[in-house]
Amino acid sequence: MTLHESGEMYLETILRLSEKLEIVRSIDIADEMGFSKPSVSRAMKTLSTNGYITINPSTGSVRLLESGRAIAEKIYERHKLLSEYLERIGVNPKTAQEDACRIEHVISEESFNAIRDHVRMMQK
């Protein structure tokens, strides 16, 4: 199944929150993303149905499954590298974050790898 940008954003948010919080719940995701609780609940149901996350019915905790974690880590790596790159070339940090958030979902693997290789060369 092809995951849309919004699904990738949810998975990335779950990953980032799980690095900060012991338990990630839908309300945490809603607060972080600025979305309504019903919207997040619908998205969590879809992500769960498609095998990207699991939701503990007794605690409400959301956990990434292997397939969801793989996508989240890929998107998060793109976000971090692209925002850092944009800042290094003089883009305002806030704008760099916003642009990286949009670019990370549409950039081809080939272009991203070329940028990543260029950034690594610049760091040497």
| CATH homology group of the largest domain | Winged helix-like DNA-binding domain superfamily/Winged helix DNA-binding domain
- Cα shape: elongated
Helix content: 55-70%
Number of domains: 2
Q: Please give the largest β-sheet.
A: 2 strands, antiparallel
Elements, N to C (H/E): HHHEEHHH
- According to CATH, the fold-level topology of the largest domain is Arc Repressor Mutant, subunit A
Residue stretches low in confidence (pLDDT < 50, at least 5 long) are none
- Judged by helices, strands and strand pairing, the structural class is mainly alpha
Mean pLDDT across all residues, rounded?
Answer: 94
The overall strand count is 2
Q: Using the CA coordinates, give the radius of gyration.
A: 16 Å
Strands of the largest sheet, in order across it? 1-2
SSE inventory with pairings:
Elements: H1 5-20, H2 26-33, H3 37-49, E1 53-55, E2 62-64, H4 66-88, H5 93-103, H6 109-123
Helix pairs in contact: 1-2, 1-4, 2-3, 4-5, 4-6
